[in-house]
Design a protein that fits this description.
This protein is globular. 0% of the residues lie in helices and 52% in strands. Strands 2, 4, 5, 6, 9, 10 and 11 form a 7-stranded mixed sheet that branches. By secondary structure, the chain is mainly β.
Length: 119
């Protein structure tokens, strides 16, 4: 299993970024793919999740309505479209493979992509 994030960067508050996660070695018709983030000195926080079986999605309340998770199975790539970004969204974002969207643990995750939102 390999997960590699890209698309992070520096953006002003109110701006947008799209994160990508290239996957390999996993079945894209089973399990779930998630985005979680971790800011310095804080605990990891689940951001969004998509079930690979039926494309059901879930979002943290803090990002609902601003972030959209999607997957391109042909390209084996997971995306996170982030709009109306806020300084509190600043964190390292990770994509992760797990059994479903309610599990508290993941099987594997990528090295992360830094997102910095300036005020």
């Amino acid at each position: 299993v390999q997960l590699v994030e890209s698309g992070g960067g520096l953006v002003q508050a109110g701006g947008s970024l799209r994160l990508s996660c290239a996957t390999s070695g996993i079945s894209l018709y089973d399990f779930a793919l998630s985005w979680f983030r971790q800011a310095p000195g804080k605990e990891p926080e689940g951001v969004s999740c998509i079930m690979l079986t039926d494309a059901t999605t879930a979002y943290a309340p803090s990002v609902k309505g601003r972030f959209t998770i999607s997957i391109d199975k042909a390209k084996k790539t997971l995306f996170l479209q982030m709009n109306s970004l806020k300084p509190e969204d600043t964190a390292t974002y990770y994509c992760a493979l797990g059994p479903n969207c309610t599990a508290a643990t993941f099987y594997s995750w990528g090295p992360g992509a830094q997102v910095t939102v300036s005020s």
